[in-house]
């Protein structure tokens, strides 16, 4: 087990380094450097001021040196500063993290609670009307942009119930109830979409397992349907689903990017969009890196969990 | 192969061709076996026709503003209402189909072809090349699709070719993976071995003998990715880094005015979103059915 975890950690680390290179290069795709972009929005530029900023950002150095500088700064936890706020980036980012985490966690809970049971029902009642209805329901979730779903939910609430969700962010410490109400709508919009993938995976995975011999044996022993399905079949069927939930997490963060903007929640994802629109690129670079770290960490957790749940994986390689 | 009595519809399809192999017969069988998939195909056909005939279908110029008609209700004048600048929503949605479909198809095609070539070579060559390529693909796939597309399109600047590029790059690793896995099994087949024994060059074997057999997974992949490409385009345009003015885009129709005027004019929010969902729903339905038909191994992925 120790060897397995070490191996996964190693792969994660390599992926992280690779991602940092990709992110670094991506933001340098545009012709001209960050200073050009910063100033093209600002109008008149003093040439000496420009040089000073270029030096401060290290843009006078060759590109590999710039990369190494950035990684070195990241490694000691220095995220640089925001050009728009003229503040250390960390001071701006830190309060945003809990918002995004809360939203992501709630969305994940909703998507699992919605996806797994519907997947099981759909598999057990394969090719019945109920199965078709559930599949269309999940496909609809995959088809609707979550940000639009969010807008429609708000619109529906306003026009039929006459209730507008709180417009400004309420911290959980201030008023937990109101905070949860505020988060539950965007979480539903994101979670519904994600639940569709989980449902489809649970369904196909369970369908496969239900055809196995040991499940037939369990039926032959005269056990009730509930025991066979939930205790015998689902135990094995859920393994690939765990992986999907891990991949889902990365997918979910993508969904948050737009949803946080629609619901005006001050999270990382909304800030990323704002930083991109303001062309505050040093921040964008670090924010994307934080997202990459979160994604890799969640994949790592899933891998380890998988190893614990399924001994075959551990000894496989 | 055992002979069996021909069904009536198969016998009808007989003249001139072998039963079940004519395009019509294949389509008919698909519709009968996969009604949902056929519905998806019909939806995609409808959207394709809308995109092609947008000029004929429009009732107004989609980019002409008319202050007097600002926020008109849906009715006889404006079938689906008008936005805050008095632009006709129906005509904009009809033209938006063109933008969405062009961006969706172009980015899916670009991404799948690039990914397909990477997957083909990495699967065919194998060894260390394969290992390294796979790791690079892992890295690209690790970033959330929308985040990657968002950063790229912001960095490249808003224009239609840039949006296409930004959406296609996240598709590359997904395509590479699918094509690679089918190449791995094709590579071991006897006819490939025979081609090698004949002394054919590797590139020729890869492209002429292996590649044609990956067409099934390739079509499945393309249909599945088309839906998500349309969704990403909508999201990018919604955030203001996607398709630029003056092209009417479904995603941007939701962003500019929709949020502000949503209460007074809910049709601004409803109709473009329905158009997006409808298009993506159609391609998902079709993709699912094609996957079940062409490549049962991929079921559920």
Q: What's the SSE blueprint?
A:
The complex is a heterodimer of chains A (317) and B (301).
Chain A: H1 2-26, H2 34-42, H3 47-57, H4 63-75, E1 81-82, E2 87-88, H5 89-93, H6 96-124, H7 129-143, H8 146-161, H9 176-210, H10 213-220, H11 225-263, H12 268-277, H13 281-309, H14 311-316
Antiparallel strand pairs in A: 1-2
Helix pairs in contact in A: 1-13, 6-7, 6-9, 6-11, 7-9, 8-9, 8-11, 9-11, 10-11, 11-12, 11-13, 12-13
Chain B: H1 8-12, H2 23-33, H3 35-52, H4 54-57, H5 89-125, H6 127-142, H7 145-156, H8 160-187, H9 190-197, H10 202-210, H11 215-239, H12 250-261, H13 267-294
Helix pairs in contact in B: 2-3, 3-5, 3-13, 5-6, 5-8, 5-11, 5-13, 6-8, 7-8, 8-11, 9-10, 11-12, 11-13, 12-13
Give an overview of the whole structure.
The complex is a heterodimer of chains A (317) and B (301). By secondary structure, chain A is mainly α. Chain A is built from 14 helices and two strands, in the order H-H-H-H-E-E-H-H-H-H-H-H-H-H-H-H. Chain A has helices at residues 2-26, 34-42, 47-57, 63-75, 89-93, 96-124, 129-143, 146-161, 176-210, 213-220, 225-263, 268-277, 281-309, 311-316; strands at 81-82, 87-88. A two-stranded antiparallel sheet of chain A has the order 1-2. In chain A, strand 1 and strand 2 (87-88) form a beta hairpin. In chain A, helix 7 crosses helix 9 (176-210) and helix 10 crosses helix 11 (225-263). The longest helix of chain A has 39 residues, at 225-263. Chain A is globular. The model of chain A has no long low-confidence stretch (mean pLDDT 82). Chain B has 301 residues and is mostly helical. Chain B is elongated. Chain B has helices spanning 8-12, 23-33, 35-52, 54-57, 89-125, 127-142, 145-156, 160-187, 190-197, 202-210, 215-239, 250-261, 267-294. In chain B, 71% of the residues lie in helices and 0% in strands. The longest helix of chain B is centred in the middle third of the chain and has 37 residues, at 89-125. Chains A and B meet through helix 1, helix 7, helix 8, helix 9 and helix 11 of A and helix 6, helix 7, helix 11, helix 12 and helix 13 of B.
């Amino acid at each position: 087990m120790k060897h397995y975890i070490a191996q996964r950690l190693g792969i994660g680390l390599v992926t992280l380094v690779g991602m940092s290179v990709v992110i670094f290069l991506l933001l340098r795709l545009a012709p001209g450097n960050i200073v050009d972009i910063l100033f093209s929005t600002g109008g008149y530029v003093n040439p000496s001021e420009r040089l000073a900023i270029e030096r401060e950002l290290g843009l006078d150095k060759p590109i590999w040196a710039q990369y190494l500088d950035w990684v070195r700064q990241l490694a000691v936890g220095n995220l640089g500063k925001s050009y728009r706020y003229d503040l250390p980036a960390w001071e701006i980012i830190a309060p945003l993290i809990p918002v995004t985490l809360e939203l992501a966690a709630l969305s994940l809970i909703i998507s699992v609670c919605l996806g797994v049971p519907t997947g099981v029902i759909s598999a057990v009642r394969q090719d019945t009307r109920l199965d078709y209805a559930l599949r269309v329901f999940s496909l609809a979730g995959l088809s609707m942009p979550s940000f639009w779903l969010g807008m429609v939910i708000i619109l529906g609430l306003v026009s039929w119930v006459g209730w507008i969700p709180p417009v400004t962010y309420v911290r959980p410490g201030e008023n937990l109830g109101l905070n949860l109400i505020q988060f539950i709508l965007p979480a539903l919009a994101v979670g519904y979409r994600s639940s569709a993938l989980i449902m489809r995976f649970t369904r196909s995975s369970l369908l496969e397992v239900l055809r196995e011999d040991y499940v037939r044996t369990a039926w032959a022993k005269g056990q009730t349907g509930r025991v066979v399905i939930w205790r015998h079949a689902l135990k094995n069927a859920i393994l690939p689903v765990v992986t999907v939930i891990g991949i889902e997490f990365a997918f979910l963060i993508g969904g948050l990017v737009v949803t946080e903007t629609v619901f005006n929640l001050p999270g990382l994802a909304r800030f990323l969009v704002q930083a991109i629109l303001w062309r505050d690129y040093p921040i964008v670079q670090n924010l994307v890196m934080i997202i990459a770290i979160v994604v890799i960490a969640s994949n790592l957790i899933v891998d380890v969990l998988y190893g614990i749940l399924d001994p075959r994986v551990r000894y496989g390689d | 192969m055992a002979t069996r009595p021909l069904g009536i519809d198969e016998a009808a399809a007989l003249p001139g061709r072998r039963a079940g192999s004519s395009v019509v017969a294949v389509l008919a069988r698909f519709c009968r076996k996969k009604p949902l998939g056929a519905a998806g195909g019909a939806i995609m056909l409808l959207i394709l026709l809308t995109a092609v005939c947008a000029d004929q279908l429009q009732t107004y110029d989609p980019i002409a503003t008319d202050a007097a008609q600002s926020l008109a209700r849906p009715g006889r004048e404006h079938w689906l209402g008008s936005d805050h600048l008095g632009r006709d929503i129906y005509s904009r949605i009809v033209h938006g189909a063109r933008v969405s479909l062009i961006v969706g198809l172009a980015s899916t095609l670009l991404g799948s072809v690039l990914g397909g070539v990477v997957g083909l070579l990495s699967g065919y060559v194998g060894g260390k090349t394969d290992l390294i390529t796979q790791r690079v693909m892992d890295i690209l796939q690790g970033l959330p699709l929308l985040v990657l597309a968002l950063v790229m399109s912001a960095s490249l600047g808003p224009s239609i070719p840039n949006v296409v590029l930004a959406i296609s790059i996240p598709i590359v690793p997904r395509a590479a993976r699918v094509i690679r896995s089918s190449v791995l099994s094709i590579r071991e087949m006897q006819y490939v071995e025979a081609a090698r024994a004949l002394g054919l060059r590797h590139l020729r074997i890869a492209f002429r003998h292996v590649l044609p057999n990956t067409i099934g997974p390739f079509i499945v992949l393309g249909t599945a990715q088309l839906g998500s490409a349309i969704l990403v385009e909508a999201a990018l345009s919604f955030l203001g880094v996607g398709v630029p003015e003056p092209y009417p885009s479904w995603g941007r129709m939701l962003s500019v005015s929709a949020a502000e005027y949503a209460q007074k004019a809910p049709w601004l929010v409803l109709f473009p979103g329905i158009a997006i969902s409808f298009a993506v729903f159609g391609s998902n339905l079709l993709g699912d059915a094609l996957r079940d038909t062409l490549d049962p191994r991929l079921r559920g992925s």
